[in-house]
Amino acid sequence: MRAVNAASAIPPEQLRLSVAPMMDWTDTQCRVFHRLLAPHARLYTEMVHANAVIHGDRSHLLALDPVEHPVALQLGGSEPALLAQAARIGAEHGFDEINLNCGCPSDRVQAGRFGACLMREPALVADSVAAMIDACNVPVTVKCRLGVDDDEHYEVFRAFIDRIADAGCRMFVVHARNAWLKGLSPKENREIPPLRYEWAYQLKRERPDLAIIVNGGIATLDDATEHLQHADGAMLGRAAYHDPYLLHRLDVAWFGGELQTRSQLLRALRPHVEVQLARGVYLKHISRHLLGLFGGQRGGRAFRQVLSEGAHKPGADWSLVEQALAVTEAFSEVPSSARADAALRLCSGQA
Ligand SMILES: Cc1cc2nc3c(=O)[nH]c(=O)nc-3n(C[C@H](O)[C@H](O)[C@H](O)COP(=O)(O)O)c2cc1C
Q1: What is the pTM of this model?
Q2: Domains of the chain
Q3: Which residues form the pocket of ligand 1, taking CB atoms under 6 Å from any ligand atom?
Q4: Which single residue of 19, 200, 340, 343 has CA 20 to 30 Å from 161?
């Protein structure tokens, strides 16, 4: 019997581009930066366990800046009543979507019997999703793998999805590889099990009324664009974090608008940074998310170096970001010049 996920109609243009939930990375400071780069992307929090949402420090765990919307709260857990309570709290806090993690393979998560283990418990996931839908008025979605360990049958994966869809879930983010629960670290579990995008594509063909978002190993604009031929959207994780300018290029390519330079984008973050510093946030908590902005560019290493060395010092403020920009711009204006080296020495206090 299908529950009513009445609020589940996410506009299709909001599905196309999203940034993956990433523990320790996609905190509110990161999301504000990503929003600036990609006005049309759907953003995800780090996974927060339902218990933490209920009992923990919500001002920290559910921190949300109004510019982040649309933004989803990702929950971990496997107890329907707790997940429902956490989903309600998340929706009341202003999150636009509540996403259930069925893909994390870490030992800690396995010990708690949630994350990727849930791929083997479709009935429990269905109960959880149904309870969450009942408890809140925003879309409830699921992020999953293709299976765990040696699950190699597409029909098993599709049966998992069907069961959850019957509980009312209309959107699935598919990290298109298995999770191997024994012997691989979470990092290896993002690299070693082979990607099988075809399963996600086939699911979309066979279940066209479900929104299917493809995730895993998407590293370039062309890769991402190709997925849109077969599914409703592409979710980028590591590439978006390490090469945030890719997010901007994708947003402009898919939704229009004018391509800004990296420096323009960074300077647009200044008002936010200054408000945060005035509230007592340390620059290093913001600047750590900016380090990849000039990756692969002339001066990119210097940008990283100036920011990462300086942001830890007491009193570090926006002027450090300007110094990093000045060094980077010096590199790009005068290729391989001594001026750039001198600028770098100046900023690192060696001159
Ligand atoms: C540092 C890090 C933390 C992650 N934390 C989460 C998480 O909290 N929840 C989740 O569903 N996936 C998490 N993931 C997995 C990503 O959401 C994504 O599924 C995976 O990285 C594959 O996408 P990619 O190849 O584009 O990075 C994490 C990945 C990384 C790199």
Answers
A1: 0.94
A2: 6-255 (3.20.20.70), 262-347 (1.20.120.1460)
A3: 20-25, 46-47, 74, 101, 103-104, 143, 175, 190, 215-218, 236-239
A4: 19
